[in-house]
Amino acid sequence: MSIFKQNNDKLNAIFCVAGEAKPNNGEDSYYYSNKGDKTIVAVFDGCGGIGSKRYNNYSLKTGAYISSRAVCGGVKSWFDTAPDDASKIGDYIREALDICEKYADKTGRLLGSLGKSFPTTAAIMYKNSDKITCMWAGDSRCYMLDFDGLCQLTEDDVDSFDALDNITSDGVLTNVISASADFEIHKKEFSVNKPCILFAATDGCFAYFNSPMEFEYLLTSSLVESENILEWQKKLNDTIKEVAGDDYSLSVCVFGFENFLKMKRDFKNRNIYVKNNFIVSDDDISKKWDLYKTNYSRYLNEK
């Protein structure tokens, strides 16, 4: 549903933008759905480097390609049957991976490193009334955008935590979903009862911008320059596609706004503020990041 529905305290719109670096071989997957007060947005990024093995009986697709879609299917099954019990989501994911392993041939063609069997990241946001549950593994992220600005809700599973460092350096993943190794599905809960935009993103969406400030500026600029939700969806896709050097998936839900016109007007002040204070030359990025990151990280330290 990408049509904006007037709803002052519930879901206004839900959609996804996605693209492939190699047509028909993209290793991202995504899912979004809404049932009454229950909404989910999720993305999955198959880990191509450690999941490069190709399987003859899976049409020579990589383990990364297969895992992102299989785990996506497991999350869909969880949402369809047991969404109020977040502790069970790992069972559905492991069941999906077990099926991948069961039907995988042992003669697949190996490319690159030996790596792991069917590896993927995941970033999942489940909203039930005012309660938001974030679940994740790897470096795909859950975000919230409100009138105070962009904030990251999940901590990257890499050997460097800082969000700016994770753009400029190639951090090593310390935790990914896989059929051949233990993994952890992190969980964190929030209570939000104000208008906001929630989204899950693979690193192809944010890692090719110079900073988190520029990513926020893209989000708000494309919004205030659009006349309706469909145009905003297209502008988001076009801008990310132009910048990204990888597959990308951005799964979005919008809550609590009176109408689209008021939403974009309310975000205009924030857009101007970010432009005037944080969209700067490369030489100034680290200094501006020091000023920006406290607000950007305002939910990360919540227990």
Task: Explain what this protein looks like in three dimensions.
The structure is a single chain. The protein is α+β, with helices and mostly antiparallel strands. The protein has eight helices and twelve strands. Helix 5 runs antiparallel to helix 6. The longest helix is centred in the N-terminal third of the chain and has 19 residues. The protein starts with 10 loop residues before the first strand and ends in a 7-residue tail after the last helix.
Chain-wise SSE layout:
Elements: E1 11-19, E2 28-35, E3 38-45, E4 54-55, E5 61-62, H1 63-81, H2 89-103, E6 122-128, E7 131-137, E8 141-146, E9 149-152, H3 165-168, E10 186-191, E11 196-201, H4 203-206, H5 212-224, H6 229-243, E12 248-255, H7 260-278, H8 285-296
Antiparallel strand pairs: 1-12, 2-3, 3-6, 4-5, 6-7, 7-10, 8-9, 8-11, 11-12
Helix pairs in contact: 1-2, 5-6, 5-7
